[in-house]
Design brief:
Elements: H1 2-9, E1 16-19, H2 24-31, E2 37-43, H3 45-54, E3 60-67, H4 73-76, E4 88-91, E5 94-95, H5 98-105, E6 113-118, H6 127-137, E7 143-148, H7 156-164, H8 169-174
Parallel strand pairs: 1-2, 2-3, 3-4, 3-5, 4-6, 6-7
Length: about 190
């Protein structure tokens, strides 16, 4: 933080900021800079709302680990906190429920690129949930990259059916978003 504080004294226009987490010092710094790109290592949904408040011109946000998001619209008090400038969101490790992601994404109406990795969360691999989020809230989304892992002993055909839901007209014809899936079967060797 001392380096950033020194930069502020020099009145340099910092556009890209990389921080481990968004805290009080980060807020003070961001108020005086016109940051358009932010990489943050660790945060939750309430941290993101703080980021959106203090960095309104943010165009690209990369979050390494987004977690523990058991929050609703009511708790966050999201009056008019839309991030109209944010065009690219990269979440390298998402650890929460789909509903939390839904709350986040509906406040980013001009998002063009979304990349997300959500390990061991079968709920995230629900094509209908995604379609019902994308159609009304993410109309500008052009690039959608996702990786969902799921480790289970579920019926192979049940999993295949769930993955096939990503091969409808909405995904293929309307958006030209093609999905690849890989199923690895592990067994105990004795």
């Amino acid at each position: 933080m001392e380096i950033i504080t020194s930069l502020l004294k020099l009145k340099l226009k910092v556009r890209i900021l990389i921080v481990p987490q968004f805290d009080f010092d980060s807020k003070a710094i961001c108020k005086t800079m016109s940051i358009t790109s932010l990489a943050i290592y660790n945060c939750d949904l309430s941290d993101l709302w703080e980021i959106f408040k203090y960095i309104p011109m943010l165009k690209k946000l990369q979050v390494e680990y987004l977690h523990n998001i058991n929050i609703t619209d009511d708790i966050l008090n999201l009056n008019n906190i839309y991030t109209f400038e944010l065009k690219q969101l990269i979440i390298n490790y998402f650890k929460s429920k789909f509903q939390a992601l839904q709350i986040l994404l509906k406040y980013i109406p001009n998002l063009k690129i979304l990349s997300i990795y959500a390990p061991n969360n079968i709920e995230m691999a629900d094509a209908d949930l995604w379609q019902h989020l994308i159609e009304p809230s993410l109309v500008h989304l052009h690039i959608f990259k996702f990786i969902f892992d799921y480790y289970a002993i579920d019926d192979y055909n049940k999993i295949l059916k769930k993955l096939e839901e990503f091969r409808t007209d909405f995904w293929i014809k309307q958006h030209q978003w093609y999905t690849n899936y890989e199923i690895n079967a592990f067994s105990n060797l004795e």
